[in-house]
Input
Amino acid sequence: MSGEWYEDGLRFECTQCGACCTGAPGYVNFSEAEGRAIAARLGVSFEEFLARYTVDHGSLRSLAEVKTRHGYDCVFLDRATMPGKAVCTLYGDRPLQCRTFPFWPENLKSASAWKRAARECEGIGRGGFVAIEDIRIQRDAQQARDATIRH
Ligand code: SF4
Output
């Protein structure tokens, strides 16, 4: 695909504010391979990981959430270790959905969709430019994953 409105790249730098990992109840989908990697990281069996840290929503299984004063935090979000920051304790093994944010197809649909996403994510518009090639990789990976769970 060519001629995207963001062909010159987009600025993004995560500040670890945690806004994308909380808020209204949501879903963090993961593949079986991702789930197994997380289980190994936690030192538990895959079955124990599923039972303790995930919720079955029917069409998909999500990482669990914990109600906090910020909203519904991902169960793996750590707000205690670094004051003022929200740290993902799975970082190296976080699911694709988290790796590709904010370069999701719905956020890239138009400049105004990107602007709307920036209201939730303070990292949008900060830092250096992410090149179009990198954006496409993340966008297309997320699109492919979406296709596996939304029908
Ligand atoms: S909302 Fe944006 S800046 Fe904040 S943690 Fe998520 S990706 Fe990073």
Remarks:
- Residues 132-149 form the longest helix (18 residues).
- The mean pLDDT is 95.
- The CA atoms of residues 18 and 49 lie 23 Å apart.
